[in-house]
């Protein structure tokens, strides 16, 4: 059977037996994956699980309380009432379950990989005759004999003895004479809704959503994705107490105007002559920034949960986001 084509990078097996490796492409600076076969590097298609939107499609569907109920989990619906759930079940839920199955039976990376081989690749893949990224073998051509005979697919022979320029001219003439079908381009059953959304941002939003579910505040979440552990404490501490860490920017500005040797710097610190703690106004402004950042991350996750429930994934951050108008904790 011929391999499938995926509109976005497909996941690679997380199993140790997969034996794929990763290196940096010096020409582009991008990561590429390969397997060693007879001492030679053979490129492999795909990316690590966390870098594939198909993995996050699976993980975001797990966050849906509606889908949790479809799979038999005992959950209290928080995203809708019972009548809305029944409507969703009729419109999307049953079909989603028929396609994705009980995804809660599959845990961790290895569980996802089993689900991918049993379900996922067929939901997200397109038959290769619809892709133009590689040449087809004789076996692959014969698999699609019906499409060729019906005229839905055209074949062309490209002699390898001709120059590239000659081939390009001949192909251009053939394409000009080609009569195209009125039918839409073939899409996967579950096709990426917004191809501009990247896996990294989906991962970050997913983490933020889980942290919110665990009861963490917006400031904690925003600081987690912005600062190191020591800096996080400056924004999480009680605002009525004096600061315990430097305002690094103010301290650096002072040193630019008052050059000091390391010895003089240490002496000044011991005498508490050059100590800059973060003032209340700056700290409040930064906390507000962290609150907005966390709210956007969580809102993006919630929007993607709603999207995946309706066969729309991935989606971006909602354009309209009002911070501080909900029951979310700010600090």
List keywords for this structure.
mainly alpha, 331 residues, 3-stranded antiparallel beta sheet
How does this structure look, described?
- Helix 1 packs across helix 13 (280-309).
- This protein is extended.
- 18% of the residues are buried.
- Helices cover 48% and strands 5% of the residues.
- The model is unreliable at 322-329 (pLDDT under 50).
- The chain is built from 13 helices and three strands, in the order E-E-E-H-H-H-H-H-H-H-H-H-H-H-H-H.
- It has helices at 53-63, 65-70, 82-100, 108-124, 138-143, 145-150, 164-177, 199-213, 218-224, 229-236, 248-257, 262-270, 280-309, and strands at 20-24, 31-37, 40-43.
- The protein is mainly α and 331 residues long.
- The chain has a three-stranded antiparallel β-sheet, with no helix packed on it.
- The protein starts with 19 loop residues before the first strand and ends in a 22-residue tail after the last helix.
- The chain folds into three domains: 1-123, no CATH class; 127-186, no CATH class; 199-243 and 278-309.
